[in-house]
Amino acid sequence: MSFSPETPPPLGTPAGPEVGNGPRIYVACLAAYNGGRLHGMWIDATEPDEIMEQVRAMLAASPEPDAEEWAIHDYEGFEGVPISEYASFDSVCALAAFITEHGALGAKVYRNFSEDLSQAEAAFEDYAGEYRSAADFAEELFRDSGTEIPASLDYYIDWTALARDMALNGEIMVFQTGFDEVHIFRSR
């Protein structure tokens, strides 16, 4: 199978473009799109200035003359967080850096704070750690406080109910990321 110069080889083939590992966006030329053609490119969401430079080059190579409008038509690597078609490259890159650093947990925290990146970043200042369950966190917190529980009463304490009450009272936030894998954040 050979490819013509106009037809790029498919992604993932030895001759095709490399698939990026981090978050990236597909920016499309709107002039071409409105003219019934797909013209755009995948761009790693790293630096806003680099993205804009690549967008300008993509628009200059557009099959439509004088193309100057663009939109984000697709994205990947953002752990399910939606990206607006007209999101600024600054906000896209900031979110990409946050998701790259914190992964799926970061995406869950970001969505919990109504997609407010500054609040999601601040939440990690109160990160208490990863536990098998919220009950394990509640038990560890209580035992680390130095309060002695008589052995005869130890089995009567319902750590699951205590953890549930802590979450309902707003003392902690609990995010499950896998089987026997929860992440606890103390609330402010």
How do you describe this structure in short?
Helix content is 39%, strand content 19%. The protein is an alpha+beta fold and 188 residues long. The strands form two sheets. Strands 2-1-3 form a three-stranded antiparallel β-sheet.
Write the layout of secondary structure elements.
Blueprint: E1 24-29, H1 30-34, E2 40-44, H2 48-60, E3 70-76, H3 89-112, H4 117-123, E4 127-131, H5 134-144, H6 151-154, H7 159-168, E5 172-178, E6 181-186
Antiparallel strand pairs: 1-2, 1-3, 4-6, 5-6
Helix pairs in contact: 2-3, 3-4, 5-7
Task: Looking at this protein, list some descriptive labels.
three-stranded antiparallel sheet; 188 residues; 7 helices; Arc Repressor Mutant, subunit A; 2 domains; rod-shaped; 19% strand; disordered N terminus; alpha+beta; single chain
Helix content: 25-40%
Sheet with the most strands, sense and barrel status: 3 strands, antiparallel
* β-strand number: 6
Global mean pLDDT:
91
Describe it.
With 188 residues, this protein is of the alpha+beta class. The chain has 2 domains: 24-115, no CATH class; 124-186, Orthogonal Bundle (Arc Repressor Mutant, subunit A). It has 7 helices and 6 strands. The N and C termini lie far apart (60 Å). 22% of the residues are buried.
